[in-house]
Amino acid sequence: MSAISYVNGVYIDHQDAMVNIEDRGYQFADGVYEVFAVIKKKIVDYDGHINRLYRSLNEISLKSPIVKDAYIFHIRNLIRKNNIKDGLIYLQISRGVAQRDFKFPKNTKPSIVITAKSISMDDYYSKFTKGIKVKITDDLRWKRVDIKTLNLLPPVLAKQKAVENGCDEAWMIDSEGYITEGSSSNAWILIKDKLITTPATNSILKGITRTSLINALKKKKIKFIEKRFNKKDIKIANEAFITSATQFVMPVVKVDNAKIGDGKVGKYANIFKDAYMEAIQLK
Ligand code: PMP
Is any ligand 1 atom within 6 A of the Cβ of residue 210? Predict the structure, then answer.
């Protein structure tokens, strides 16, 4: 079965879906996006993601091309049309097609693209039992990474560097030596029984998975603090994690080739993952 995507009001075979070469998403990365996980045909934390999409649109002065209720309608259609049980939905909105000029075009309708693909939860759980390796790289991004924009070259380069060093994710470090976040995830360490994650300022994307995990931890009365951490803190951490819509809660067992704890997935990893999975909202 060929994949079906949604492009500007039309459901179309994925291989036939095209964008105009004058699209400002293509020309300037002038747009925003969201990624939603799907578990058992339901959208994970839909409200958090859709509200963040509207915040991102607002921050770059872009109007949604469709009414808010239409998003869940189209996403559910794609889940059904692509026969997705577990999967990922990618949704992007750009400022639309206009002759190349930096300033905003007048009367241009934003472009919207939504795609869907299946993922295997078995693959996730087997990756979880091994944990992942992280490479520390410089954070080369702009000053508004709290907005989920299409401008992703720095994280692309960071992730590539991680992969070239046999790692799965990059943790980006700022000019003061603090870890901001992963190239496409939020970063966490555990020192003794103190769980630490970087505060949600303009220097990180406030992950929806991060917020859900925090809510889950509060419910379970597990303590955590929002505090910046550096390489020295990582050295004494007994466990570490990343969170994202695509990785859920994923343990980190090595950072820059140094083992975290004994280099194996620790006992808190399961506690946090289970707390998160229990607390997610499925819509
Ligand atoms: N930080 C960055 C830079 C990301 O790209 C992502 C994934 N989009 C996250 C954090 C995690 O966010 P979420 O949990 O909403 O997927």
Answer: yes
Among 119, 138, 172, identify where a domain stops. Answer: 119
Q: Is the C-beta atom of 186 inside 6 A of ligand 1?
A: yes
Q: Rounded to whole angstroms, what are the CA distances from 14 to 21, 81, 95?
A: 18, 12, 22
How many Å lie between the centroid of ligand 1 and the Cα of residue 133?
A: 18
Known catalytic residue: 148? yes
CA–CA separation, 194 vs 265, rounded Å? 17
Please state the separation of Cα 1 from the chain's center in Å.
28
Given a cut of 60, whether residue 160 has pLDDT beyond it is yes
Do residue 52 and residue 166 come from a single domain?
no
Reported pTM: 0.97
What average pLDDT does the chain have? 97
Instruction: Establish whether residue 190 lines the binding site of ligand 1, counting it when its CB lies within 6 angstroms of any ligand atom.
Output: no
**Rounded to the nearest whole angstrom, what is the distance from the C-alpha of residue 197 to the centroid of ligand 1?**
14
Residue 89, pLDDT score? 98
Instruction: Select which of 133, 148, 159, 254 is catalytic.
Output: 148
Q: Which of 86, 119, 152 is the last residue of a domain?
A: 119
Count of structural domains, the chain: 2
Judgement on whether residues 102 and 33 belong to the same structural domain of the protein: yes
Q: What is the H or E stretch that residue 154 is in?
A: helix 153-164
CATH of the domain at 37: 3.30.470.10
d(CA 168, CA 22): 34
Same domain? For 70 and 87 the reply is yes
Q: Atom 9 (ligand 1): residue with closest C-alpha?
A: 185
HSE toward the beta carbon, residue 271, CA cutoff 13 A: 15
Q: What is residue 2's predicted lDDT score, i.e. its pLDDT?
A: 73
pLDDT (tens digit, 9 = 90+) per residue, 163-221?
Answer: 999 999 999 999 999 999 999 999 999 999 899 999 999 999 999 999 999 999 999 88
